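Ticket #4471: structure export looks truncated?
Reporter: QA, pipeline team
Priority: medium

Steps to reproduce: submit the single chain below to the structure queue and open the exported record.
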Amino acid sequence: MSLTAVLDRIDADFDASLHRLFDLLKIKSISTDPAFKADTATAAEWCARELQAIGFDASVRPTTGHPMVVAHWRGQVGTGPSVLFYGHYDVQPVDPLNLWETDPFEPRLVARPDGTKMIVARGAADDKGQLMTFVEACRAYVAVTGGLPVPVTIFFEGEEESGSPSLHPFLEANKDELKKDVALVCDTGMWDRSTPGMTATLRGLVGEEVTLTCADRDLHSGLFGGPAQNPIRALSKVLAKLHDDQGRVTIPGFYDGVEDLPPAIKAQWDGLGLTAQEFLNPVGLSTPAGEAGRSVVEQVWARPTCEFNGIVGGYTGEGFKTVLPAKASVKVSFRLVGKQDPVKIRAAFRAFIEANLPPDCTVSYKTHGGSGALALAFDSPWIEAGQKALSAEWGKPAVVMGGGGSIPVVGDFKRILGMESLMIGFGLDDDRIHSPNEKYELSSFHKGIRSWARVLAQLAA
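Actual output as written to the record:
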């Protein structure tokens, strides 16, 4: 069977695969710092050369910022669905440098007392190690079979860590070339070191900044305290009304479009056994504060939220100043799920604020983005194919996970290219991405390559 031969090739070539990853990790492709513009371009050229060496028609595409890499397989293919594989070759800055145990751009392999090993370097997990798992799977397929089991296009971005300013216009300009049957996105993770996972849902986000104004200037609290309206007190009362005693959001219509989990998925998530204490204790907390009757996994992966991210009013400097401030403001974020409409959520929130304002208060708003949730249907054939492939490689059922945050490119693929995304990655929560001493499990890299080979075979089937 060709898949068995491909997997054997991956194992036999693994030392060389690791060497190639180390070569990429040595390149200082920090996209947000202009001082590393040339290094970032070097990383794009390195990726294109490696893909050309496998047999891809690969090119470095200029943008107004850092370049994109686009590669098409033009050779022998099977008859399965066409795929667009996405990753990013840029990395985060390394500051504070003094907290790194060694040079962040001199990758090293570190062995633990239990025998497990990890790759330590900036970009090891986010996202160079992840994208190279797919490249190496393709390399093995070509070496063994002379082709790929499905039509493959590879798309690497160089600005993911700096806000992706060129991504949207690039996708718009090249939508006909890049649109495929499904996108494969590797910038995600596993449930734990030995349990694979696929991310099926991503929460949307609405951000609002609200400012209440009362008097036309700050007032002396000894002269005006009592009869004068205090915007901090008014704002606090309104915010307190946004949640009931069960942790549910009280905005009318807030839960429109929110559906309960399918029983099979809920049972799988409950079976993970993560308790509120296990989730909260590492950050110094102990008591769950969200929706009553919902597990922490369900709350983070499948329930909407309303959270206060910052509140300001009055004098906040050193010492003490007895004033009634003229203004008070709060930053509020909503994480959205299912079919919640960000436009309707924003309008309902503003209506709630205005309905609960006391006399002598006016309100103004500042918008901070808004996007809906993204989800693959839990019974999607893409999910089914991914589950079969990952479960076969890791020897246990793959967890269909949710994402508490968002991955903007997945939304762009949906809106601009009309593509669903199958999100499979091999990172872990303790990989210290964006932090000193970033690492990637050696098993994640090795079995990640084998996993993508199985995914491609399953898609072809």
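Status: closed, not a bug. The export was complete when the record was re-opened. Leaving a note from the reviewer for reference: The chain has a mean pLDDT of 96.
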